[in-house]
Amino acid sequence: MTNDRYQSPLSERYASREMQYIFSPDKKFRTWRKLWIALAETEMELGLPITQEQIDELKAHAEDINYDVAKEREKLVRHDVMSHVYAYGQQCPKAKGIIHLGATSCYVGDNTDVILMAEALDIVKKKLVNVIAELSKFADENKNLPTLAFTHFQPAQPTTVGKRATLWMQEFMMDLEDLDYVKSTLKMLGSKGTTGTQASFLELFDGDQETIDKIDPMIAQKMGFEACYPVSGQTYSRKVDTRVLNVLAGIAASAHKFSNDIRLLQHLKEVEEPFEKTQIGSSAMAYKRNPMRSERIASLSRYVMIDALNPAITSATQWFERTLDDSANKRLSVPEGFLAIDGILDLCLNVVDGLVVYPKVIEKRLMSELPFMATENIMMDAVKAGGDRQELHERIRELSMEAGKNVKEKGMDNNLLELIAADPAFNLSLDELKKTMDPSKYVGRAPIQVDNYLNNVVRPVLEENKEILGMTAEINV
């Protein structure tokens, strides 16, 4: 590593080595060679004068790329694909003349891009599924723990800690659905030539349309895909990149919402992200425990959401069969979107796996607001004791306003129960009133909703993906 030039934080700090390798030069150029082998095999199998000996020679040098030769050649010809064709040919003198036969640069460039995005989506899916799995455990463990719910970040009716976690989980589940769908629609470009007309193959195969129709499906099958896009210009439609990056942006939005809630809960001291023994929260304030991982999730998520604009604008501005103003942008936006979402999901997994819940703080805050929320039940009990419903409603409204004023203006604890007990209209003792203060009575169907959601929606998906469960995430910084 050198300290005198820019280093990407995505590779130095955030993304895993696994994801970094997907978008490395080595992975790209090895994939190019696999594509050249697939093309040559297909052409041989369809009758062109290519020998098995030539194919074997290509396969023998599929992995040992002579980068030095390619780099020197590129200085001369200023073309990366032709430089690697030349370098491959130096290692394979017998096959030299048939490498890249009938193809254009986008044959290796675009097909490789699709292959890499597909493999990167597999990594994203693995991490996303594991985040969902950890959230499901958290939701199940805390499904019965009452907590104050908020609308507009103002106290509302109670919910449970586990029910709140299902809201985070459901958004990640939506992202998983989108990912699976987009991944299932990915196709290869195939080999269609400079404007997508397959004119070179019309020449190579003497106009044999039936044979030419077999080329793309055979290449796709050799590379592990079901099909190629049926029509194209020189490139696959850049809308493909848009669809893929939109999936990443969706995950980023879900992660951002989750991280915001954790940051707010940590401020309330109800739930805390993991904090290591030697971790420093602030350079000035030694007591601080900042939610830095959740803040980093939010920070990187904003980057990914904005990054999705790049392929959208690129796809919108392509001219006819192709322009090259996509290339530099693609080299940045697609890999960096994946590297960032990789780091985000590692952070999410780390945070969810180590969330700390403080039930006593949660209970204290809930109990400070619960008397207001219990007023309807109290009123019904008072009616049963002989009171007038309409009079009691007005009286309880007045007492609630007085208790609220005491809290806000005088800094007192909520004394609504004491005020009600002192009012003869209610005919209820303080002990009787306190018996109504069981938080579990006010959470509605939250625990049942958690059970139903986990059993009917989440666990079937986790069972379907059980082979990729069980990972943990390490945070570099």
Q: What letter string, H or E per element, gives the SSE order?
A: HHHHHHHEEEEHHHHHEHHHEHHHHHH
How many strand elements? Answer: 6
| Structural class determined from secondary elements | mainly alpha
Shape: elongated
What is the CA-atom radius of gyration, in angstroms? 31 Å
N- to C-terminal distance:
17 Å
**Approximate strand percentage:** under 5%
- Poorly predicted tracts of residues: none
Strand order of the largest sheet: 1-4
Q: Which sheet architecture does the biggest sheet show?
A: 2 strands, antiparallel
Count of helix runs: 21
Can you give me a brief rundown of this structure?
The chain is mainly α and 477 residues long.
